[in-house]
């Protein structure tokens, strides 16, 4: 399993929830009004891809075989409306309780 953190403008909320539901990723934590800073290139800047425009985040656990479909769909969503600065971060889950 992987842990996935998705940061996004609230305009994406319903689409992301529907996507997680379609993929069977039913457990998640939703965080409103998050703040941060970053860019596609990794160089900090403020503008269309700066995190201050992203006011929400979802942390979810995803089965390994569902990570690629999730990221592919999120990437397509980002290409459609890049000004909303959708991002996803994935890491291995070492242990759970």
TrEMBL record:
<dbReference type="InterPro" id="IPR002187">
    <property type="entry name" value="N-reg_PII"/>
</dbReference>
<dbReference type="InterPro" id="IPR015867">
    <property type="entry name" value="N-reg_PII/ATP_PRibTrfase_C"/>
</dbReference>
<dbReference type="GO" id="GO:0006808">
    <property type="term" value="P:regulation of nitrogen utilization"/>
</dbReference>
<dbReference type="InterPro" id="IPR011322">
    <property type="entry name" value="N-reg_PII-like_a/b"/>
</dbReference>
<dbReference type="Pfam" id="PF00543">
    <property type="entry name" value="P-II"/>
</dbReference>
<protein>
    <submittedName>
        <fullName>Uncharacterized protein</fullName>
    </submittedName>
</protein>
<dbReference type="GO" id="GO:0030234">
    <property type="term" value="F:enzyme regulator activity"/>
</dbReference>
């Amino acid at each position: 399993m992987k842990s996935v953190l998705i940061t996004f403008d609230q305009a994406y909320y319903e689409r992301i929830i529907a996507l997680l539901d379609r993929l069977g990723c039913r457990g998640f934590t939703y965080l409103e009004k998050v703040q941060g800073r970053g860019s596609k290139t990794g160089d900090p800047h403020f503008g269309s891809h700066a995190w201050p425009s992203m006011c929400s985040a979802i942390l979810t656990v995803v089965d390994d075989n569902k990570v690629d479909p999730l990221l592919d769909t999120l990437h397509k969503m980002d290409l459609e409306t890049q000004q909303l600065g959708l991002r996803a971060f994935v890491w291995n889950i070492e242990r759970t309780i």
